[in-house]
Amino acid sequence: MKTIEIFVTTVGAAAPKRLQLELEATVADLLKAAHANGEIEPGGEMLVFLEDEDEPLHHSRKLGDCAVQERAFLHCHKCRHISVTVNYNGTKEKKFAPSVTVARVLKWALKEFGLSGQDAEDKVLRTDAKGQPLEPGTHIGTLVARSCSLALYLTPLVLVEG
Amino acid sequence: MGPDETLFRDHLESDAFLAGTARGKWRLHEGPEDIVWPNPIFWIQSAKEFSPSGGVFLRFDLQNYPQQAPTSCPWNVQSNTRLDYKEWPKGGGNVSRVFNSGWNGSALYAPCDRIAMVRHETWATIHSAWWWKSSFTFVRYLEFVHNCLNPAGHEEKGT
Fold first, then answer.
1. Are A141 and A82 in contact (CB under 8 A)?
2. pLDDT, tens digit, for every residue of B51-101?
3. A-B contacts (CB, under 8 Å)
4. E strand intervals along chain B
5. Interface touch B153/A7, C-beta < 8 Å
6. What is the DSSP string of A29-95?
7. A73 to chain B: which residues are within 8 Å by CB?
8. Identity of the residue in A16, A123, A158 whose CB atom sits nearest the CB atom of B127
9. Residue B123: what pLDDT?
């Protein structure tokens, strides 16, 4: 039976957790394994997404049948969508799956605000206007614990100087 | 093996390091058995506009890790010498600021680099997420360099 290594993130987790599961395992097995390691709050409906995919995986499906491959990144979250608001010189809003990365939201926001080239390169997203820049690979689901909405700020990169 | 090396080798097995390796963000050069302590060498992915090969090797000095912050230098793994300054990554944002051979030819100008941290205490506030703490692992340093060389808003020319 072939075993694959995958990385699973969920609410509040700073880094993905590495799990090893058989390809024959189901998405429900994945949830159970992740829970066994303490990543997921017990109780309530939990959805599982592949990174940057909009549709959750059915719990009864086998990993090997739903494109979960070696070294895949997945996300467990209670929200089906997260309503993301980005503030810059105005406000833009869009719903994303919790497994969407900050990098993808940033690219969307740059396009929405008409930024390109150098104007785009020096922009980062933050959860508050003066906070630390978000890591591009972060799943947005890790940034919201209870609600299914997220406010972000598009701000200039702070240069290393002085 | 000293406690610094023991801890470093534990962190090589951490989920955070292996997740970055799985994403193609970085990798250890050669195998763990080839490490000449305290100088492991890592490859870090880069946008080709900043480094035409698509990455850069960094030779670390992790003496007294993690109580003491790391420092690193761009490295030529063929000649096993410091990378020629002409080949250091160059570009906008923080790229040419961090890879600044005119400041110091053997370290990165970074808030998590122990040589650069000297006399830059204001970075502890301005770049608090990156200012080295003994609770960090070397993965934090790799993240800083990777973010610098791969701005999320950057698009490769010609794409």
1. yes
2. 999 999 999 999 999 999 999 999 999 999 999 999 999 999 999 999 999
3. 74
4. 26-28, 41-45, 55-61, 71-76, 81-82
5. no
6. HHHHHHHHTT-S-SSS--EEEETT-SSPPPTTSBGGGTT--TT-EEEEES-S-EEEEEESSSEEEEE
7. 19, 22-23
8. A158
9. 96
| Shortest CA gap B95–chain A (Å) | 9
The tokens describing A123, both together, are 């922009």
Q: Cβ–Cβ of B152/A107 closer than 8 Å?
A: yes
Joined together, the tokens standing for residue A128 give 């508050």
Which residues of chain A does B23 touch, with a Cβ-Cβ cutoff of 8 Å?
73, 137
Inter-chain CB proximity A160 and B111 less than 8 Å: yes
Q: Of A102, A115, A160, which is closest to B94 when you measure between CB atoms?
A: A160
Q: Which amino acid is at A9?
A: T
Put simply, whether the predicted model's pTM sits higher than 0.90 gets the answer yes
Q: Hunting for tokens 């808030």 — which residue is that?
A: B111
Exposure letters B22-41 (e unless 16+ CB within 10 A, then b): bbebbbebeeeeebeebebb
The answer to whether A75 and A31 are in contact (CB under 8 A) is: no
